[in-house]
Specification:
Blueprint lengths: L16 H22 L3 H16 L3 E8 L4 E9 L3 H11 L8 H9 L3 E3 L11 H5 L5 E9 L2 E10 L7 H14 L1
Length: about 180
Amino acid sequence: DADGRFRGYRGVGRDITERKRTDQLLALEHSVTRRFAEMPDSGQALKGAIQAICESEQWECGRYLWVDTAAGLLRFGEAWSVPDASIERYFDEWRAIAYAPGEGLAGKVWQAQRPLWAPDVTNDPRVARPGVAQATGMRAALVVPVIAESRTIGVLNFNSRQVREPDERLLHTIRVIGAQIG
């Protein structure tokens, strides 16, 4: 008013949360594509892609398990994590573990060629070795196949210390990224 007091406003409000999330996930896809285009070798590119996904979506760690066709097992490949000694010990344990088709979340994803989301691995019967995750406080897991020429060549596995409910949009984006990597 004439005395400088606030009297109200006129305007239009619009919730842009969904659009912002879509933009964020598209940016993640582009970031992964850029890392593969810019890195000198596939190992560094894969580690960079895992890092981009973890940082964008607040996962404490991620790893890639590759299919050892000769042995018929999934084996530890590349990994990235936030700086944390307990996660490094976690990775050290995982380096010694191999999965058969259908064993644990990774083996189930390998076999079914479909992603799995475990909101809390501490009470999920599909988890083969819950003690390994519990030792570092890991709770949620997102596991996605990497597919090339209609077959799974590896599995991406992300973990968080927070219980996390499935996010269908993130699942879709990570599936697309898994196909890009493949």
